[in-house]
Design brief:
Helix content is 65%, strand content 0%. The N and C termini lie far apart (147 Å). The chain has helices at 9-24, 33-73, 87-98, 111-120. By secondary structure, it is an all-alpha fold.
Length: 121
């Protein structure tokens, strides 16, 4: 049996490995070792794959929702200059619509005036 107390580090490490091998024994090769190992690896990866797919789907759905909302909110006008006008231009146009350049007089006739006109004609 090798001693762990004396010698160089390499000799001590070799002695430790020999003691470990004698204590635990070498594992017998099992035909199901690799399939079980891959099964464990894939079971851990399934969670990651599912999360990645869900995240990808959510990102795609969010991008699609943003595009749809941008399309619905985008202004549509028959007059292309409406959104390019300044605030003062819009106020001046509104003021012009409220006060026309000319006004037509309005006359109100009573029943007696209407009868008098009909008699004269």
């Amino acid at each position: 049996m090798a001693s762990l107390d004396g010698g160089s580090n390499d000799e001590r490490l070799d002695a430790l490995f020999q003691l470990y091998a004698r204590a635990c024994g070498s594992p017998e090769p099992d035909p199901l070792f690799m399939p079980r190992l891959w099964q464990k690896i894939e079971s851990r990866q399934n969670v990651v794959v599912i999360f990645r797919r869900m995240a990808s789907g959510l990102v795609t759905a969010a991008a699609l929702a943003c595009l749809i909302m941008a399309y619905l909110v985008a202004p549509r006008s028959s007059t292309p200059g409406f959104y390019h006008a300044t605030y003062l231009e819009v106020l001046a146009e509104d003021q012009a619509a409220q006060s026309p350049d000319y006004a037509e007089p309005v006359s109100v006739e009573t029943d007696s005036e209407t009868e008098l006109k009909n008699e004269l004609l």
